[in-house]
Amino acid sequence: MDGRGRAPERLNSPQPRLGSVDVIPHLYDAAVQPSAWAGALEAAAELLQAAAVILECGPPCAGLIHIIASSGLSAELVTAYNRNHIGNDELLQEALARPAGMLISSRLALSDAALERSSLFRNLLRPAGLLEMAGTAFVKEADLFAGVWIARGAGSPTFSETEYQLLRELLPHMERVVTVRNRVAQAEQMAELTAGAFDRVAMGVVLMDGLGRPLLTNREARNIGNEGDGFTILPDGPAAARHDDTRMLRAAIRKAGGADRSTSGPAGKALRLARPSGRSEYQVVVLPLPQRCQPADASGVVAVLFVTDPERSHSPIDHLVADLFGLTEAEVRLVMQLLGGSTLTDAAETLGLSRNTVHSQLASVFRKTGTSRQSDLVRVVLRALAPVRGPDDSSGFYIVPDDGRW
Fold this sequence. Notes:
Layout: H1 24-32, H2 37-48, E1 52-58, E2 66-71, H3 75-84, H4 90-97, E3 104-105, H5 106-109, H6 112-117, H7 119-128, E4 132-140, E5 145-152, H8 161-198, E6 204-209, E7 214-217, H9 219-226, E8 231-234, E9 237-240, H10 243-257, E10 269-273, E11 282-288, E12 301-308, H11 318-325, H12 329-339, H13 344-351, H14 355-369, H15 374-385, E13 398-399
Antiparallel strand pairs: 1-2, 1-5, 3-4, 4-5, 6-7, 6-12, 7-13, 8-9, 10-11, 11-12
């Protein structure tokens, strides 16, 4: 029972027809295109004769939930409310405490005096010229909350059972849309996280489908391809400078992806690609992904290509060298000189140190890295850290355009 002796309303009555307003197609558009929420909520506002319709989503904690779309509210008001006030929203807190599908109304939950004192009224309803608000949570899961609210202004009649019945019919569709959109967003986030991880690799990486078409490339592969010196990433597959090299490369990709079953032998191939500039050949390795990653058709990522330019120098990130081996700043500077190909004499001159000082520093470095020769030192450090690249503004995968594909 509420404070006025009335039982809470539940949105579980028989569903009426939605009438003439075409809301459902707009809702399902929002599953794949979040910007479509605006049109969907406008259509819902027309159907429900509401001055405003508000959609809130987020992890099930008042401070983490936000208004993600609305009709009838200014963008500035929504931004300010999300930033400063939504955690104190009295009706949102009620929605978090009650079962999904249970109607929560400012008219039933708050007296007139309590409503005027509420954060909801002072920071959202009054600035928007609204007076009555009602709605419900329609998704309440361990990692996701979603709620919808309808509002009317002063001088308008209160919401009737007719509007509540129409809202009931919308809820199952909104639940499906938000659930699908949440899954899509999680997949997109995972793709971004994977992209960031691959961009830390100092080697070109290209993920390809079963027909040899590139789907994702990391920063290093993109940089190599953009040089146009014997390796290019085209929409229909990687290409080399020579036709025969392109043919061999694509044959290796098709075999790794399982599309070419005409030959036997192990999947995977290593080859060198000549460069018109005459510089050192690219080194390319093509491998299949594990069977658990293989889709039923050729639509998914099934093969990975690694490309290395022997002439591209990748020095380890200096502070990581210090972290890994416990080196001082002076010792790191010496190691970076040696990794760059300097002799001990050259390093001493560049660093402005005496030969005795660099010998002392080198002895300390040998002890900390468990090595005894400069060649061993270089090998140990490069093996540990050279494959790792630092971030820059171009981080992230480039998604190869493909009509209709995410």
